[in-house]
Design goal:
alpha+beta, nine-stranded antiparallel sheet, Lipoprotein, signal, DUF5991
């Protein structure tokens, strides 16, 4: 009988730890939910008009969408989110139409390829972006303060 009780105790502890781990993972994702914006300035066109591209990331319980719009840009990307307490990795899933190729028939990103990672600076808490497969034209530094949470 004591062997059975010991096994039940081990199982209970294991199940409890698994539940805590699952709750922590859900909480980490919830901490990242919201809308994030990055506005990229490409300078001015020959007529003096500003050339801007806006990156809008929407993260929700079952939602990861990246909209890129502005100067010569109009893309919708469905993404997946690998979120932890320290960072959130935004990965390519498909374009808005469900295809993995862009409107020109080119597969720019591989499925599950990291587009970029968001994290909070340990010392200041500032939101840091580390670019991956997605690298905006005007970005000179791979890591920096780009996205702003709304």
């Amino acid at each position: 009988m004591s062997t059975t009780m010991a096994m039940i105790k081990k199982f209970s502890i294991t199940a409890f730890c698994a539940l805590l781990f699952a709750l922590a993972a859900c909480q980490s994702r919830a901490d990242w939910e919201g809308v994030y914006l990055f506005s990229e300035s490409l300078g001015e066109d020959p007529g003096g008009a500003s050339m801007l591209v806006e990156y809008r990331l929407e993260l929700g319980a079952d939602r990861c969408l990246l909209a890129i719009s502005g100067y010569q840009s109009d893309s919708r990307i469905r993404c997946t989110l690998d979120a932890g307490a320290e960072s959130a990795i935004v990965r390519f899933r498909s374009y808005g139409n469900g295809e993995v190729k862009n409107i020109y028939g080119v597969q720019v990103y591989q499925v599950d390829e990291p587009l970029f990672t968001l994290r909070h600076a340990r010392d200041t808490g500032a939101l840091i972006t580390e670019w991956g497969a997605l690298a905006p034209d005007s970005v000179e530094e791979k890591t920096g303060n780009y996205f702003v949470r709304q």
